[in-house]
Amino acid sequence: MKTPVSRRVRDLVYETFASEGRAPSVAELARRTQSTVDAIQKVLNDLAEAHALVLTPDGDAVRMAHPFTSAPMAFVVTPLDGHDDRRWWGGCAWDSFGISAALHLDVRIDTACPQCGAPISFQTGPQLPPPAGLAVRFPRPAEEWWADVVGTCTMIRAFCDRAHAEQWTTDNVPGTGYIAEATAVWRLAGPWYGDRLDPEFQPHSREHNQGLLDECGLTGPFWQLP
Ligand SMILES: [Zn+2]
Ligand SMILES: [Zn+2]
């Protein structure tokens, strides 16, 4: 059976992010699928509508294909293998673990604590959890994530510890968000993102993803997917 162009476009976006750390342009996608710019633009619109990727505000370029992002955000993901000179921007703490999971790769994640500004740098991988004590704060409930998905990712940050995440919340947006252990977010990222680059990847159902959240102890109204 011939692969539909939307699937080829989606796969090319992911392959280019994985191998080059960037999103392919519309013209590039048109050339590589022997299609037209107009047809590709329509495919991208449909993929964005289905939440398979995120376009820029003008809609003419790929901004994110989770866990990848085409623009600098708060996390840098570096392979531990010094001969592998790829680098990726991590859209958020969860996505940074997701890049490691999707690529089946041990990495170093670099970011900074929003509360104290201290650099945070640690090694992690599919079998290597992040340091105990590290905290990840989610800014808004799951049902609101996609209303502003870039904004949501921007605010899913890693903090030195729970105390810094709590202090930052009190000082900036009291009473909001959810503070999780980074190890729980790492455990979630494995099955959530681990199959993203598989040739046979199929989008997860809502029920499947809700089950993954449950298994990591992320339960209750805050974690109820829409
Ligand atoms: Zn801190
Ligand atoms: Zn994210």
Automatic annotation (TrEMBL):
Q: Which Pfam families match?
A: MerB (PF03243)
| Record-linked SUPFAM superfamilies | NosL/MerB-like
Q: Name one GO molecular function term.
A: alkylmercury lyase activity
Instruction: Give the Gene3D superfamilies listed for this entry.
Output: 3.30.450.410
Designated name of the protein: Alkylmercury lyase
